[in-house]
């Protein structure tokens, strides 16, 4: 399963990329707005730092505007995936971009039918928002199961990109189902790295080593 970071925060992107954990990045207008800087600089930087796919989202709601914006977004790098909303115009743009070999991420997917239509429109990624479904009392992970089952009946090249991930258990469940990608807020990736027994175990190892060193001052590893 690929891991993308769901952020426009350069510090987090550099931190996790230096650890070798990132296969790509997803952004959206809200994440850009949260950082507050010039989005042009952020998009330039992110596409330079990251080798893998970087989803940059259009803000036009009609077809021709999406096509113009998508082409401009692609100027940031060959790794740019044009992100379009799951709307009739978004699917039309998806079909056009895909037929030109430009990868598309269809976002704001909340049903298996929407995922099916996006896949039929040639999307490289579909982004079901599981946390937002959980928020309204629906089972977000069940949607991932449904999409996985449907895609496995056919020969779509579309990848399931699990979005709106809120906690590490979402990641485990997505991996069990066999989702292709999860896109994670930095806080969730931080939590995945940690376990209290790892910290306790390491503190004990180091304390024991210090005791040994006192008896053998020349010892080095
Ligand atoms: O990738 C989509 C994601 O950013 C939405 O997450 O937490 O705003 O539902 P959230």
Offer a few descriptive terms:
53% helix, single chain, 8 strands, TIM Barrel, 11 helices, binds SN-glycerol-3-phosphate
Radius of gyration: 21 Å
What is the helix fraction of residues, given as a range?
40-55%
> Which architecture name does CATH use?
Alpha-Beta Barrel
Share of β-strand residues: 15-25%
SSE pattern: EHEHHEHEHEHEHHEHEHH
For the termini, the CA-CA separation is 36 Å
CATH class bucket: Alpha Beta
Produce the secondary structure layout.
Elements: E1 2-6, H1 10-18, E2 24-26, H2 29-35, H3 39-49, E3 53-57, H4 63-74, E4 80-85, H5 88-99, E5 104-109, H6 112-120, E6 125-128, H7 130-135, H8 140-152, E7 159-162, H9 168-177, E8 181-184, H10 186-193, H11 196-215
Parallel strand pairs: 1-2, 1-8, 2-3, 3-4, 4-5, 5-6, 6-7, 7-8
Helix pairs in contact: 1-3, 4-5, 8-9
The chain binds SN-glycerol-3-phosphate (G3P).
Residues 6, 26, 28, 129, 131-132, 163-164, 183 line the site of SN-glycerol-3-phosphate.
Q: Could you characterize the architecture of this molecule?
A:
The chain is α/β, with parallel strands linked by helices and 221 residues long. 53% of the residues lie in helices and 17% in strands. The protein is built from eleven helices and eight strands. An eight-stranded parallel β-barrel has the order 1-2-3-4-5-6-7-8, surrounded by seven helices. The protein is globular. The site of SN-glycerol-3-phosphate has 9 residues, from helix 7.
């Amino acid at each position: 399963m690929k891991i993308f970071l769901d952020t426009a925060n350069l510090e987090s992107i550099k931190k996790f990329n230096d650890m070798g954990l990132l296969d790509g990045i997803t952004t959206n207008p809200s994440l850009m707005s949260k950082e507050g800087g010039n989005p042009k600089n952020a998009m330039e930087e992110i596409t330079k730092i990251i080798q893998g796919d970087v989803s940059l989202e259009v803000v036009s709601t009609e077809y021709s505007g999406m096509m113009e914006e998508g082409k401009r977004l692609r100027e940031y790098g060959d790794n740019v995936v044009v992100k379009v909303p799951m709307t009739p115009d978004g699917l039309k743009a998806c079909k056009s971009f895909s037929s030109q070999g430009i990868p598309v991420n269809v976002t704001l997917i909340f049903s298996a039918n929407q995922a099916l239509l996006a896949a039929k429109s040639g999307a490289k990624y579909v982004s079901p928002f599981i946390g937002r479904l959980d928020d309204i009392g629906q089972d977000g992970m069940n949607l991932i199961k449904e999409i996985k089952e449907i895609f496995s009946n056919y020969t779509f090249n579309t990848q399931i990109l699990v979005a709106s991930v809120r906690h590490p258990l979402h990641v485990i469940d997505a991996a069990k189902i066999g989702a292709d990608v999860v896109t994670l807020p930095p806080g969730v990736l931080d939590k995945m790295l940690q376990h209290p027994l790892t910290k306790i175990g390491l503190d004990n190892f180091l304390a024991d080593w210090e005791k040994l060193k006192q008896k053998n001052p020349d010892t080095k590893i």
